[in-house]
Write a structure and sequence with these properties.
The chain has 306 residues and is α+β, with helices and mostly antiparallel strands. The protein is 27% helix and 29% strand. The chain folds into two domains: 6-124, Aminotransferase class 4, branched-chain amino acid transferase, N-terminal domain (D-amino Acid Aminotransferase, Chain A, domain 1), CATH 3.30.470.10; 132-291, D-amino Acid Aminotransferase, subunit A, domain 2 (D-amino Acid Aminotransferase, Chain A, domain 2, Alpha-Beta Barrel), CATH 3.20.10.10. The protein is built from eight helices and 17 strands. The longest helix has 14 residues, at 53-66. Bound molecules: pyridoxal-5'-phosphate.
């Protein structure tokens, strides 16, 4: 990981190496926390902008509300902190931003009402999550044995730290089996999402992605659906079965970290021509245009840091 100079902790900029917590911090033991994953890009005019900052911060606060953590900072304060953090770290070439709401030191036991709620924001340079080659040639995916935590036993719509145990187990299983990424099914066997991304297929020119019944309410998925409509495609939000994926013409992931990553193989079945499909390519390049400030319609979603 590429280190930066400062991390924002509860209102103060702290040296990267001094950004520490007590070993008895509540979140470390019981797993209640909320995160965001937000990205800033160098724009076409040489500046740098955070994409959909407000939406990400709002989701952080929503995730915290769902998981019963009362965040002691307002949405505006958190937005301002993220802009200042990138400025102070001189991350002008773009960055990944990781806000974290966590329960700190002082209370043990599961009843967390009195535990202090702390917030940190870190940012660093982070390249393509599934690799540059994955963005061009597509990645190989395994449908894992892990069921995506159902809403009856978790806070599925929250970007809750606790949900990532489920994701980690799935990802590990897929990578150890020789694949790049994991797909998880919901408790009825329909495709839910990937370990850290949403899932789309293309069949006969129609773009299909599951509803967010058992997945994060994804910000990139919403952007890509808007973009697909702009480009004149029909988008269906409906459940997808495992075998439908195998015969799809194209498949791809969307997410802040994975951006738009093509899928070339699922469970030893080659998807389409086994390369980035033409519709995926259009959406991918359209997405990069948006985040780099080249698409006027989406200019309102960019928060410039310089
Ligand atoms: C489990 C999971 N699903 C979906 C996504 C995609 O969400 P977004 O597009 O808002 O980054 C992510 C990434 O944040 C994720 O971790």
């Amino acid at each position: 990981m590429t280190e930066a100079k400062y991390i924002w902790m509860d209102g103060k900029f702290v040296d990267w190496h001094d950004a520490k917590v007590h070993v008895l911090s509540h979140t470390l033991h019981y797993g209640n926390g909320a995160i965001e994953g937000t990205k800033a890009y160098k724009t076409h005019d040489g500046r740098c902008a955070i994409f959909k900052l407000k939406e990400h911060t709002k989701r952080l606060l929503n995730s915290s509300k769902m998981t019963l953590m009362d965040v002691p900072f307002s949405e505006d304060e958190l937005n301002k902190a993220q802009v200042e953090l990138l400025q102070k770290n001189e991350l002008n070439e773009g960055a990944y931003i990781r806000p974290l709401v966590y329960l700190g030191y002082g209370v043990m036991g599961l009843y967390h009402k009195e535990a202090p709620v702390n917030v940190s924001i870190s940012a660093w340079e982070w390249g393509a999550y599934l690799g540059e080659e994955g963005l061009k040639k597509g990645v190989r995916v395994k449908i894992t044995s892990m069921t995506r935590t159902p809403n009856t036993s978790g806070m599925g719509k929250a970007k809750a730290v606790a949900n990532y145990l489920n994701s980690q187990m799935a990802k590990y299983e897929a990578v150890e089996a020789g694949y790049d990424e994991a797909l998880l099914r919901d408790d009825q066997g329909y495709i839910a999402e990937a370990s850290g991304a949403c899932f789309f297929i293309v069949r006969d020119g129609i773009i299909i992605t599951p509803p967010n019944d058992t997945s994060l309410e994804s910000i990139t998925q919403a952007t890509v659906i808007d973009l697909a409509h702009d480009l004149g495609y029909k988008v269906e939000r409906r459940r997808i079965t495992r075998e439908e994926i195998y015969i799809a013409d194209e498949a791809f992931f969307t997410g802040t970290a994975v951006e738009v990553t093509p899928i070339r193989e699922v469970d030893a079945r080659i998807i389409g021509a086994g390369e980035r499909g033409p519709i995926t390519e259009k959406l991918q390049s359209g997405y990069f245009d948006i985040v780099q400030g080249k698409n006027e319609k989406y200019a309102k979603h960019l928060t410039y840091i310089n």
